[in-house]
Structures are given as C-alpha cells and as structure tokens.
Design goal:
The chain is mostly helical. The protein has six helices and no strands. The protein has helices at about 1-25, 30-35, 50-60, 80-85, 85-95, 110-120. The longest helix has 22 residues, at about 1-25. It is elongated and about 80 Å long.
Length: about 120
C-alpha cells in the first residue's frame, strides 16, 4: 500500500512540474510588452503622409481584394481619413506583429515609415 501511495505522489509530482513548466512558456512580442523600446530613429526617417505613407499603403495594402474599395479585408485604406482611423490596427498588425500584408512583412525601411508617421500623431502632411 505504501509503495502505491509513493507511486501516486511521484506521478502527480512529475505531472505538476510538467504542467508548470509548459504553462510558463509564452511568445509575446517584445514590442507589445515594451512599447517605448524601439530602435528606429524617426529623426532620420521621412514619414510624410502624401509622399511616403500613402504610396506605401496604396502599393502594399489597398490592393485588389484587400483594403481597396471592395474591402475584402474589412477595412478600406484609400484616403487619409481611412488610414488615420486605422492607425492603431496598422501599428499592431504591420509594425509590431508583422502579420500584414499577407504576402509577407514589409521591409524595415517601410515599417519605419509607418511607425514614425504613427508616432508623430499620424499627421495629414
């Protein structure tokens, strides 16, 4: 009987340790945990809406069957107001998570343009 109790204690001890270890692993993005911690120097990045942001959005996001007039993606990104209203979502999906566009993450230079424009308050310039 004592041997059976020891086996149960051993089994439950191993199970508890295994569950504890698995539960302690996570895959949070550093940028989400520490939003002020970034390595982009916005003083060196040109991030004007009309000359940098809008052409980038037009070529990478507002494409056929994504964020164009058909809005298959659910959000239309064709003008300043639409892009500005979606700036937080753009920041999360494009800059932080890098899950948009679906064809693959933007280049570091393109991400810097969007991040610096959003960090500057998303001006209509």
């Amino acid at each position: 009987m004592k041997q059976l109790i020891n086996k149960h204690i051993f089994f439950y001890g191993i199970a508890f340790c295994g569950i504890s270890l698995l539960g302690s692993c996570y895959y949070d993005k550093e940028a989400l945990l520490y939003p002020g911690n970034n390595s982009i120097d916005c003083t060196t990045v040109s991030a004007k809406f009309s000359s940098n942001v809008q052409p980038l959005i037009t070529s990478k996001c507002a494409t056929s069957s994504c964020h164009d007039a058909s809005a298959a993606g659910g959000i239309i990104l064709l003008n300043y107001t639409q892009v500005s209203n979606a700036k937080e979502r753009i920041n999360t999906r494009v800059v932080v998570e890098k899950t948009m566009p679906p064809s693959g993450a933007l280049s570091p230079a393109e991400i810097a343009i969007l991040k610096c424009w959003i960090d500057a308050g998303a001006p209509n310039n």
